Amino acid sequence: MHGLGNDFVVIDGLRQQVRLSADDIRLLADRRFGVGCDQVLLVEASQDPRADFRYRIFNADGGEVQQCGNGARCFARFVRDQGLTRKDAIPVETLSGLITLHVQQDGQVRVDMGAPILEPARIPFRAAGQALRYPLKIADQLIEIGAVSMGNPHAVLLVEGVAQAPVQSWGPIIERHADFPERVNVGFMERVAPDHIRLRVWERGAGETLACGTNACAAVVVGRLWSLLASKVRVSLPGGDLLIRWEGPGQPVWMTGPAVTVFEGTWRTDTARRMHATGNADPDSRIAAGAAGRTRIPE
Ligand SMILES: N[C@@H](CCC[C@H](N)C(=O)O)C(=O)O
User: pLDDT for 9-39, tens place per residue?
Assistant: First the structure.
């Protein structure tokens, strides 16, 4: 599935037993040796009586993370299309708490992403105290960032134009900056108008993606705190547009956008592992491993 080109392998962990190691996730996410995706999403049962499902998120590097905005919209589409629920408002448990996904009549999904977290220790970010802007030393330069958690950590920088922004060079440096002990997602924001920004994102554990829902929320929060933006903002990402709404501190951030299913298939972890280890190029095995197959998920 994808949300504006931020792509996912979504797995039903309700009707089948799913056990994936970090190596399995990396192989599944590999664009040449696996299926290829930015994140793997797992649908599970929740123990929380307020939630209908548990939504687990794994970056392409195999690490489990707290939140994913584009994935949340795909998660809603998936559980509806697979007949796992008929609800229009779906409460789901994530590592960072409960979020509610609203499937709209027009097929778009609107998500209450919760209130942003601004206290540095909770992002987590090493800073002397909470501030609107923080200096950050990268290589021999001092840059200015906003830092926010949307359940997962984000740094946002203002740039003159996203086309020339140093996403590929600064992104990985900021992602692993010592002041972000759990690493960070990095957004390069260009203000077009009070109700419109352009954004490119270097994602923790995935590299530059075509869109990042949580970073779009974080960018609007930072832009609002810096008095640059209105409360409703169109965020243009390389993969398309999101609508983000934030009324101010303490209020939830709302994200609206599309979610698309591309194909369904079967992935046999044992065969995939074996093939990857031996470099087996037998075309029949390739199909068995799901690397080239187009099959329906068995009932
Ligand atoms: N693509 C996602 C964010 C996925 C997780 C992120 N890379 C992290 O490590 O926190 C989105 O749309 O929000």
Answer: 999 999 999 999 999 999 999 999 999 999 9
Cis peptide before 249 (omega within 30 of 0): no
pLDDT for 279 equals 63
Domain holding 203, by residue range, is 120-257
Number of domains in the chain: 2
Catalytic annotation on 68? Answer: yes
Cα 186 from Cα 171, distance rounded (Å):
6
Helices 269-278 and 22-29 cross at an angle (nearest 10°) of 80
Q: Is 100 in the pocket of ligand 1 (CB under 6 A)?
A: no
Q: Are residues 24 and 67 in the same domain?
A: yes
Quick one: pLDDT at residue 138? 93
176 within some domain: yes
- Write the CATH number for 171: 3.10.310.10
Our answer to whether residue 37 is catalytic in this structure is: no
Task: List the chain residues with pLDDT less than 70.
Answer: 279-299
Residue 289 CB less than 6 A away from ligand 1:
no
Residue 185 labelled as part of a binding site: yes
Q: With a 6 A CB cut-off, is 94 part of the ligand 1 pocket?
A: no
In a domain, residue 295? The reply is no
